[in-house]
Input
Amino acid sequence: MDKRHILSEIKRTAAANGGVPLGTAKFFRETGIKNSDWLGKFWARWGDAVREAGFEPNQLQGAYNVDILIEKLISFTRELGHFPVRDELKMKSRSEVSFPWSLTFEKHFGPMRQRAAKVLEYCKSCAGYEDIIALCEPLAAEQLPEPTAARRCCRLKRQAGLCLYGIAETRPRETVQDRKSSAHRSENIANFAAIAGRVGVGAFYQY
Output
């Protein structure tokens, strides 16, 4: 990897980002240039590379303002004509450097149904968001599906101290020494059987 090429890409991506140089993660997504292509070869720190390209290194970014995140979701929803799913948020972030990463939205608002509920709450407190309200109301009102028998069984096994490897095959969550003790495993299985029997799922899966 040529040093001049890296400096040129720093300048190009900074220009596309309103004159602000990218951090290493977004720089990699935009250019394909990895940390290993420059770290310890041309520069000891990313800030040194940014300075050589003619910029001041970015200060550490604080937490996103919640209203800004919601407005970005609203804008992107209008662009799509529907509320965005996770992969659409990822694609948007890759194509537009100023758009937050999908995990940022999940960290602040939770999964899709909860994100729609937060946007809906925001839009109902302001005027001019009738189109977004119409798109978000059905999503926010969706009921989560009841867990399947398999999921209920998995949860009960965890409560009983068993670590799952697939649906039917289980092993105890224990130390190497514990695994030598069949009595310990028998105790865990008995715990599961007792819990499962109380809620009526014991007939679904047998050891």
Notes: Residues 3-52 form one domain. Residues 74 and 102 are 14 Å apart (CA to CA).
